[in-house]
Design a protein that fits this description.
mainly alpha, globular, disordered C terminus
């Protein structure tokens, strides 16, 4: 795990404690968002670097990793100000970081990235990030794009940082284990991966197009993320170390809980009579999805992929020594 992720995680815990003690005026939705730039994105960049190899990939992600922590700190400071020009300027570096990764994702796909499911997942993850950053700009500037008010504006930024950025990276890591399985299993996983990748965009479109698409997109995202969680469990036996197994198992359990809540909310909101209120969704679904599914999942898969890579390198060195 990178030092940026550790530093960001410690700072985020401090923000939570400060808010609980009423030293900071950050609400649950603010804290859920700040987890993304401080911990989720650096963890995601670490995982992306391990999943998609190559000098060009390493260079692009490496540049983003160096710029991530300063941009995340500026974003954190922004939330100490009321929405306005100052708060917007402070999140602009994060917007630039997101746009840089988004452009890299588009270029990667244009240069033949569709040939590999892992590359498609990582590219789509980076493409979704600047969309989330754009909604963050709107939120901190106090804008109401397309008539949407807070907290929907900031919740949309959260959506694209978690479901848009993090979930495709977890899908990419899972794809690396599925590649060694039977053809039928790979086909099922590709269907689920397609749903995970398309879900965030379709759900966002549903808020604009109408309630029918929004409900269909929400249920599609729920079904496919539950499917992804089941593939997490499928991959557990081959994962090392045990800490990675425990984290990925917790991630799988968390997504099952959070997606059931998401389905209840989506069905209840369709007739505009929600069974679960937005504040409750933020605390229950948001916390389980952010800390359980996303953070534990990214940590577990990073540990597992890193362990496998070190083992492969050790075998390669041993073979070179033998032939020498």
């Amino acid at each position: 795990m990178s030092r940026n992720a550790i530093a960001g995680g410690v700072l985020w815990i401090g923000l939570v404690v400060g808010s609980a003690l009423s030293l900071l005026s950050l609400n649950t939705i603010d804290l859920l968002f700040l987890l993304a730039p401080l911990a989720v994105v650096p963890l995601g960049l670490d995982l992306a670097l391990r999943v998609v190899k190559g000098e060009k990939n390493s260079l692009a992600i490496g540049v983003a990793r160096r710029a991530q922590l300063p941009a995340a700190l500026c974003t954190t400071v922004s939330f100490l100000f009321s929405p306005g020009i100052v708060a917007m300027i402070l999140v602009f570096p994060w917007f630039c970081l997101g746009c840089d990764l988004g452009i890299w994702g588009l270029v990667c796909l244009a240069r033949g990235g569709f040939k590999s499911l892992r590359t498609v997942c990582v590219s789509m993850s980076f493409i979704y990030l600047p969309i989330g950053c754009t909604w963050l700009i709107a939120s901190r500037w106090g804008l109401s794009p397309m008539g949407f008010q807070e907290p929907i504006v900031l919740l949309t930024a959260i959506h694209f940082h978690f479901a848009g950025f993090a979930a495709p990276l977890l899908t990419a890591a899972t794809a690396a284990t599925v590649e060694r399985t039977a053809a039928n299993v790979q086909k099922i996983f590709r269907i689920i991966a397609t749903g995970v990748l398309a879900g965030p965009g379709l759900l966002a479109a549903g808020f604009v197009v109408g309630p029918h698409l929004k409900l269909a997109a929400a249920l599609l995202l729920v079904i496919n993320e539950i499917g992804l969680a089941l593939f997490f469990l499928f991959a557990l036996r081959g994962m090392r170390p045990r800490s990675a197994q425990a984290l990925v198992a917790l991630s799988s359990a968390s997504v099952l809980f959070s997606m059931v809540l998401a389905a209840i909310w989506a069905v209840g909101e369709f007739p505009l009579q929600p069974f679960v209120h937005l504040a409750e969704m933020a605390k229950l679904h948001g916390t389980a999805n952010a800390l359980g599914f996303t953070v534990c999942g990214l940590l577990g898969w990073t540990l597992s992929v890193g362990k496998a890579a070190r083992k492969k390198d050790a075998i390669a060195k041993e073979e070179l020594t033998w032939f020498a």
